[in-house]
């Protein structure tokens, strides 16, 4: 054999040896999932336990690693992108693998192929993997496709070959918040979300990961797995059928691409889950793992499809339908259909509320005859706080006021939706509660109440115990109620009287306490107060049952007229911490309404404006038919006083001769005067000086001497009281007391201050005057007295010093008598004068009583104890000498 021949034979032998050495092995396997190291986990078959882990050959890929010390999971850049390529291309598929090497522990190094695509080459080209092999210099053809792919990625600076900044920018990272918020989920309703199944929790619950790496736990739409939830394990208690269902789903859909059509997010996120183009609910229903649920609410196509799947499981008696009884099923269906028919009939022909609605607030208050009932709003409950009466009362008021505004001038309907019965085992009684839909112009007010945060939705799956508008209520955005307290009227508060007197305001009648007393709410000021109807008097007798019943009937009629309605309130008078008001509703006087119906007696100073009330008094009808203890006592007192008047009267005053005087003022106690008009002229001069004086900055202080403007003229004054709204100043030259702001006050000068005070003052003889703050007639009395001012009159003075008193006569009119005659003063109780002056006073007082003028509007004023004392004297038991002396001293002081 030649040398050449020998070389050829040797070369052929080497080639054959290399071919034998390079012989590759392949195998096929189904991929179960991709683990956190981006290794491939294969599905095993048969009882033999094998190592089913396969790692990618030739390359290193990004991994997710848990720190042993901190427990924190750290992802390498492009871990997620690599994992997604492997999951999408391999999971759930029968894949061809090239076996590069098999370890002693059974783990394999592999190259996966999808058709003709080498998956490792794909990862290298994208820059998601790095080679861990080096090119052999003697055999450059070996693994050349891998080196070419890596060089291609490097040249294009893809993936891990990009700059550090670029890598951080483009790599998809795990979000800080893994789960969607409630608000984010609410925006998904009706939308289809793409992602993959991460985990199967139960037959009808899956963990879904979206393409943005966020997680959402989804319940399969329109099915019921009939499992009890265990809060301790935060999972459902599984029976054998449930475990079988989870195993089936885990095998079929875990890590597969899927879409979720979000149908609702009420209690949990429910959606139609589609995997590999198939609705998983169909498979669950066909296998009998779950039941259909709420199919009546589903689309027609979905409903028919799911019912057909469920029917298939029933006929085959699969899963939970093993003991299926068609007859029992038919009975249940018939019962359900009857309920649906009853519900449809109830909605079509709803019962209307029986009774007369008194108010809408937390509850609907209505009356049937003499009984008052409470109704509830359907499917909502108020946000009351247990054992917090103040909070709950305020909530009730806010709801009432909100509904009043909402319902004002609109059509209101009240429909009964359902009733609930509650049995009391101890009392052996059954209570039936009624639940209503309240509609304003056809719209359910419950929606607005939810939006305002006054109520929350009462969840109910049973349509028989739902509002007719339950769907709209469940879709309403529930607001948050913020407590805001109402300003309660406080009569003792400074400036309250000045804020409201002689003003007209819009208010709402919140409650009717009696035919003459109402509680009103003023929306503009967020203030609540009680007021009395002016000129209306209500006799009282707690033991008179007939009077009580009449008052209750009157209250009911008045409620029908004004309760919860907007009224105009004219604040006329203020007496004993109460405002006396004129009230009108729709231009009709509420005071007149009360008087015309004789719900109250007339107590005005002028002639009774209601002819119907006058007729009722004459005929003893209405409120006048009742004679109370107070009326009887008043009559008895009047009779006793009439008898007392005939008792021997003594001369109390010895008046001196007539003197002329010029009256300049009245301060409510004394009359201020000069000897002549000439003496009072200096007041004009002082007024001119103050008017022309320059105004300089100053601070108003109590006791300060100043100039004060009253009715266009300036007077010397002294500050009595300093207040923010109005300062009280007394004019020292006239005695007049005025309330003015700082603009009507000027600081005085030394020249004006030095001018002597020459005005004289004297009390009015034989009469008791009204007291400021105690008698509402005080202002009227002052006004009447001022009719005698700025005039020259005749004055008759009795006594001297502190006991000095006077009668003042202007022409033929005596000032003392005029005040008594108009019910603006009383004859002194110790006065016993049978002179012409005394007779005139008593005659004037009798006339004022008869006409019920001012102080006499409610009849006799004599108190019981005083009457007893006077009766003792009348019987002949005269007061002791000390008592007589004390009374005389008291009279002198007055």
Automatic annotation (TrEMBL):
Q: Which residues form the TNase-like domain?
A: 25-163, 191-323
Listed InterPro entries: SNase_OB-fold_sf, Staphylococal_nuclease_OB-fold, Tudor
Question: Compositional bias (Basic and acidic residues) spans?
Answer: 884-894
Example GO CC term: the record gives: nucleus
Which GO biological process entries does UniProt record here? Answer: mRNA catabolic process
Report a single Gene Ontology molecular function.
RNA binding
Q: Which domain of life is it from?
A: Eukaryota
Give me the ranges of the annotated region Disordered: 1-20, 873-894
The name on file for this protein is TNase-like domain-containing protein
Organism name: Entamoeba invadens IP1
